């Protein structure tokens, strides 16, 4: 089964008043005998204004710095580029400057995009890495998804992004379900899931398996967290000889 692990970073926990700052994703196969990501996605979202919860904003300060530094120059260059394109055929048109601005815009889009563009960009990533399957009943493209509380948190934010049109399968893997212990009085966090996985890995004969995780630390970076979840799920459902 091909699954996409998705994680986001936001400016708060309420999708009605907070924003998505970063989307991270990892496409992987559960039937693979080794954990080998088929593709990764990592983009920040260039908001013109940031609003949300002070704690969450402070926790994501590094992402917001990227938005401030890269996003501002992105918007400036887009305006300059289209102003310049409007002068094609006129004496003031500078083809070399237009090329430089276009290349700079495309380079910045490898790091992030405006909210209006991110949904289509992410959709194309999933298509490129064949993350979908065709539902035989509806003939719609669906994506198998995993994440830490994807349906309870991430999806609530993602569906509010402009032009969002992805169909995820209504059922999903959650590492909490896979690493839950009967004596738990609260569901395990991602950190605890990693700790439990690391304990299991000590018993593996394969050095490659033992080195899936080197630390139980959770960085709260969208791509890092998506990668952690992908590894946790793959390890539990992988083929066993």
Task: Describe the protein in words.
There is one protein chain. Helix 5 (150-158) links the parallel strand 6 (141-146) and strand 7. It is elongated, with a radius of gyration of 21 Å. Helices cover 44% and strands 18% of the residues. The chain has nine helices and seven strands. The two termini are 18 Å apart. The relative contact order is 0.18. The model has no long low-confidence stretch (mean pLDDT 90). It has 241 residues and is an alpha/beta fold. Strands 1, 2, 3, 4, 5, 6 and 7 form a seven-stranded mixed sheet that branches.
Layout of helices and strands, plus pairs?
Elements: E1 2-10, E2 20-29, E3 39-45, H1 54-59, H2 61-85, H3 95-108, E4 112-113, H4 115-128, E5 132-134, E6 141-146, H5 150-158, E7 168-173, H6 175-179, H7 190-201, H8 207-210, H9 222-237
Parallel strand pairs: 1-6, 3-4, 6-7
Antiparallel strand pairs: 1-2, 2-3, 5-6
Any descriptors?
241 residues, alpha/beta, seven-stranded mixed β-sheet, 9 helices, 44% helix
Mean pLDDT, all residues: 90
**What does the overall shape look like?**
elongated
Assembly state: single chain
Helix content: 40-55%
The secondary-structure class comes to alpha/beta
Q: Radius of gyration in whole Å, from Cα?
A: 21 Å
Major beta-sheet overview: 7 strands, mixed
Question: What's the SSE pattern?
Answer: EEEHHHEHEEHEHHHH
Tell me the number of strands: 7
Q: Flag low-confidence runs.
A: none
Q: Strand-residue fraction?
A: 15-25%
What's the N-to-C terminus distance? 18 Å
Number of separate helices: 9
């Amino acid at each position: 089964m091909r699954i996409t692990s998705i994680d986001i970073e936001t400016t708060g926990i309420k999708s009605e008043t907070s924003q998505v700052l970063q989307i991270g994703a990892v496409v992987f196969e559960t039937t693979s005998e080794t954990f080998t990501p088929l593709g990764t996605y990592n983009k920040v979202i260039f908001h013109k204004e940031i609003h949300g919860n002070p704690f969450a904003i402070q926790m994501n300060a590094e992402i917001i710095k990227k938005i401030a530094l890269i996003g501002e120059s992105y918007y400036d260059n887009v305006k300059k580029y289209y102003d310049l394109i409007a002068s094609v055929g006129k004496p003031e048109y500078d083809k070399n400057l237009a090329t430089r601005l276009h290349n700079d815009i495309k380079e910045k889009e490898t790091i992030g995009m405006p909210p209006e563009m991110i949904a289509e960009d992410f959709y194309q990533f999933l298509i490129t890495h064949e993350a979908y399957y065709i539902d035989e009943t509806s003939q719609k493209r669906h994506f198998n998804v995993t994440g830490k509380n994807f349906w309870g948190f991430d999806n609530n934010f993602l569906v509010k992004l402009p032009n969002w049109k992805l169909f995820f399968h209504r059922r999903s893997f959650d590492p909490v379900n896979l690493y839950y212990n009967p004596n738990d009085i609260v569901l395990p966090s991602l950190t605890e899931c990693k700790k439990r996985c690391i304990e299991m890995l000590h018993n593996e004969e394969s050095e490659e398996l033992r080195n899936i995780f080197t630390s139980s630390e959770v960085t709260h970076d969208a791509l890092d967290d998506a990668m952690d979840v992908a590894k946790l799920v793959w390890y539990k459902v992988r083929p066993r000889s």
